[in-house]
Amino acid sequence: MSDTPLLSVFIPAYNAASFIREAVESAIDNGYADLEIIVFDDGSTDATATIVESIRHPAVRLIRQAWNGGVAAARATGVTLMRGKYAALLDADDIALPGRFEKQVGRLVAADGPDIVGGAIDCFGDINGVVHYPLSDAEIRANLLFNASLANPAVCMKLEPLRSERIAYSGEAGAVAEDYALWVDAMCIGLRFENLPDVLTRYRRHSMAVSSALPFSAFGTRNIVIRRRVAQYHFPGMAPAEREALVDILSHRLGMGDRWFSGIYAMSRAALLAPTVPRIAPALMRRLLSEHLLRTLQYATTYDALTNDTLEWMTETNADFEHWRMADDGALDRQIVALVTADQ
Known about the structure:
about 15% strand, elongated
């Protein structure tokens, strides 16, 4: 193996003895030769390190740390360890499908290629099914207002932005959202994204996963902080209180009452501003906002808090909501009316 491989595959591992061999061997057998595979043993107390040491392959490097610092810190340390030009991310319990690295490096080296490229994942274990993500840079940027938009263990990216510290893994984001925070950092400095339509990684869903051990509230709190940054980036012209209402409703933090109305009005404003947001797919953002609105209104029907009179009052008192309802020849309005009618 070269001392300067083109690709560094980074696998953080903590007590991953049940899965680590399969993960490492999936990288070895991927069909890509110019690579190193770094397993960062983050203070494991099981046989993780012993199993990796038993894999006799020149591309495999085992780095052991005596304490457990967490996955975000492990990834930050990994930036200093990787010798390649590109980094492929893989978790210790996941499987890189054959051909993944060749496809992704091929896009990164292309003249029109992105800085960060992901792809679809095949979930298995406790949850099964293929998950696809928005493909283009503009679609991913629009979707970042709602979620991470790339699957971390299916990502391959240029290392230079990390090495130069233009972006960095944040300990504040924690294990549940360090990838989401990183993609937002990347968007803010102008990096380009892409997701391939191909399934690139088998993503194991099980009770031993890092995210499974965390309370559900941890996801919401961390994602709210990140979503707030996205709202500021996409909608700098909105008033701070209006952006906060948008973040609240997208983060499911609203009950009924004034804050609920403020959230819907903020979504209406965002939908109308979407065509003015640089480098996004406005049609996708408007569709996602419309879908979230309909889910919110559906939730309201379960509390008998949504009536024709309520909708009429909202429409009369907020021009943005009225314009949004009536846009596209009243397409959204028809869906809202059907929702209310079905509940009566």
